[in-house]
Amino acid sequence: MPLIMIIYYVISAFIAGMLVWNFIREKKNVNDMLLYLLVLIPLVLRILRVK
Amino acid sequence: MWPFSTPILGLALEFVIAALVAWLVSPKKIKILALSRDTMRRLLPLLATMVVVGMLQQIMTVTGVRGMISFAVISTPLILLFISLALIIPVSEGVLTYGGAAIIGIPLVWFLDSIGLHATVAIAGLSLLWPLGDGLPPTALIGRLSVMVSEYKGPYWTFLRSTWVPWLVITVVGILMIIFSARLEFLVRWSM
User: Fold this and answer.
1) What confidence tens digit (pLDDT) does each residue in A1-51 have?
2) What confidence tier does B99 reach under pLDDT thresholds 50, 70, 90?
3) Which residues numbered 26-45 in A keep a CB inside 8 Å of some CB on B?
4) Residue A11: its chain B contacts at CB < 8 A?
5) Residue-wise DSSP of A12-49
6) Which residues contact B143 (CB under 8 A, 6 or more apart)?
7) What angle in degrees, to the nearest 10, is found between the helix axes of B44-63 and B32-42?
8) Do B123 and B178 meet the contact criterion of CB atoms below 8 Å apart?
9) ipTM above 0.85, yes or no
10) Of B131, B128, B119, whose CA–CA distance to B188 is shortest?
11) Contact, A44 vs B48, CB < 8 A?
12) Nearest Cα to Cα of residue B103 among B76, B70, B141
């Protein structure tokens, strides 16, 4: 696997981690929680290599 | 071999490298995790918009709607096409963000090239028109970002209405660049 692709997986994991962290800390706003989950979808698919 | 050829890093990685360099040389200590989380929280509506638009493009591609739109654009009568560019280009950007260039731009440039217009100048003209759509709803990607950064409190439409003079000038210049691209070929002759 090329190095650049590995870096992209690391970036995706980092962003997904930040989103999960924000999702867990978000206690009140349900809309924001849904948006966090929505934004997570492509990142999780990328990390799991699902096309 | 470097420096004569460099690997294609991609825009996202280039941004990350720029951010890392800014972080390393910053005289103030930056808490990168807290900053990343706060940036995510502030830009959440924009991130969600980009994800939804990406999904929309994928669905349009697999259902054939993307091809249908491309065909509709290139089969429009030429005069009508030139007039409607002022509308379809910004609206496509407003709906599809950067996907507008992929869906409409590529067949449009091929078509303009095939009727004898100069592709490079025509692309430059289109590149003037497309950013206008970044201020248009539903995505209004750069428009919303500008409102957030400038902390403008009024309604978005008031903000947008105040841009009508530069909007008009950019539209006219962009369309004229496309129509007269063959005559403006001397501008890019140096690059041939």
Assistant:
1) 689 999 999 999 999 999 999 999 988 889 999 999 999 999 999 999 987
2) confident
3) 32, 35-36, 38-39, 41-42
4) 12-13, 16
5) HHHHHHHHHHHHHH--S-HHHHHHHHHHHHHHHHHHTT
6) B134, B135, B136, B156, B159, B160
7) 60
8) no
9) yes
10) B119
11) no
12) B70
pTM as predicted = 0.74
Spatial CA neighbour of B112 closest among B191, B187, B186, B184 = B184
CB B44 within 8 A of CB A34: no
Chain A residues with beta carbon closer than 8 angstroms to that of B42? none
Distance CA A7, CA A14 (A): 10
Q: Contact A22/B40, CB-based, under 8 Å? A: yes
Question: In angstroms, what separates the C-alpha of A49 from chain B's closest C-alpha?
Answer: 17
User: How far apart, in whole angstroms, are the C-alpha atoms of residue A42 and residue B76?
Assistant: 35
For residue A28, which amino acid is it? K
The residue whose two tokens read 């403006």 is B184
Q: With an 8 Å Cβ cutoff, is A1 touching chain B?
A: no
Among chain B residues, CA nearest to A2 = B7
Please give the single-letter amino acid code of residue A50: V
Which of the residues B41, B53, B62 would you substitute to probe the A interface, choosing the one with the greatest number of A C-beta atoms within 10 Å? B41
- The CA-atom distances, in angstroms, between A30 and each of A34, A41, A42, B40 are 6, 17, 20, 16
Helix (H) / strand (E) element for B160: namely: helix B156-161
